[in-house]
Amino acid sequence: MVFSGRLSKACEECRAKRRKCDLVKPGCSQCARKGLPCPGYRDLSKLRIRDETIRVSEAVCKSNRIPTKHQIAKVPAKKIIYEESTAALYPMICLSQLTKDCAMAFFMTSYINSSIFESYLPDLYAQSRYEKDCLRLATEAVAIATFAHRIRSPKYAMHARNTYSKALAQTNAAIANSDTAILDKTLAAVLLLGLFESVAFQGDSSLNNWTSHTFGTLQLLRLRNKTKPENLQLARQLFIHASYNIRISCLQKAKPVPKELIDLEPLAADGNDSRPLAKLVPMLDQVVAIRCKAALGRTPELVLQALEMDTELGTFASALHEGMPLTPDADGTVPLVQYKDFMNHAFANRRIAKYNNSVRMMRLFLNDFISQGAAAVEAEMAGYMPLFEFGLGDLQATAANNIMQITRDVIQTIPMYLEHKDKGGKFAPSARVLFWPLSVTLSCTACPEPVRALIGAHLDKMGSDLNFPQAAAAAKVQLMDDTVTGAKDWLHLSYLG
């Protein structure tokens, strides 16, 4: 509460016009001369409360602005050097509380609704009430970054960067303390810092930072394993989230899953966990192992191993569909381009659609490897074919048919990420998870040209609607040259975000 000065005794009309009021009762002479009814005088003894939030916020913003050249000319030299260097590194941009609230609402309700964050972050954030807490700062940084990206505001993006720097400092301080390093909010903050890098993507530096944050969580998981968590369910959710990010990074780069993570899995596992992602993890490890071996060379044994793994994943996908069946799309959304017998289908929610696309990406890799690997080691494969009821040509044809069916299934999930046509029919923010699956379909040699054109059209619209043209361009590299891989090595960031 502040004292704003002595209250004026003048009538309301004179106060508004800033005239000197003679205070004559029942009405002042100034109003009488102008032929106006005098509104009378207020009771100064009554308590009055005035909202000064906007005025104070503007005053703070004004005081934090970077000084002009005229202002700098009046400041001593030593102070100039400090202020200029600080302004260049950390520009002070003040956002209103309303803007921050809008950013947080957008992030919590729209941006993470197909992410693992959706299952635990809102409740965890609500429990963190200290404004300089690493979790709150990290969440605020990502929320403002996503909002800035959505409305295409460089000013808000700069503020998000500034908040990210503060969050990084607070998170590092929490990790350095053995008591706070094992807390749920510390691990969640590290995961959020990784998400920030995918939102504010700036090339190789963002990819390297994301990788550092992601594999840094492994050390936190090791420390957390030595203590008993207060909230077992939340601890399990965080473990699955962190370990899944590590595994996807290994899959993308064809690197083995760290043995330390595999050793921690049984200790953190919940035998009653029926969530799809928990059941998918062991199969993901096997696919990563196959991809690592495939990078070293193709063998008949590896082709057969891939065939067995694809069969297992196909069975898992069928069971997943039985519990979460596809239903015809009835909300009025339509895809940008129709192709043959493709139909619009919808899952119960976008996160389930994302789980299904995870399985499909693994199967696409396996079937593409089966098709090409069997041809590469045709002579050696001849000795194994008597084990099957079909020949080598049938094996390759089956793999090609699987690729076509899986590609069709991926495309059928696209309408799930379109907003209702009454709202413009644009892609929702969560559609960013489609860039990587669509890129994987384009990388398969068996993907026909008409389907490639269809996918390319969707990617163009997604890049425009989501203000993410670089992701669309990276995914479409496969349309021009399916041997290029470097340009799309970071698309898994948008998928995991």
From TrEMBL:
Alphabetical list of PROSITE patterns matching this protein: ZN2_CY6_FUNGAL_1, ZN2_CY6_FUNGAL_2
Keyword Nucleus: yes
One Pfam family named in its UniProt record: Zn_clus
GO-annotated molecular function: DNA-binding transcription factor activity, RNA polymerase II-specific; zinc ion binding
Superkingdom of this protein's organism: Eukaryota
Keyword field: Nucleus
Domain Zn(2)-C6 fungal-type: 10-38
Protein name (record): Zn(2)-C6 fungal-type domain-containing protein
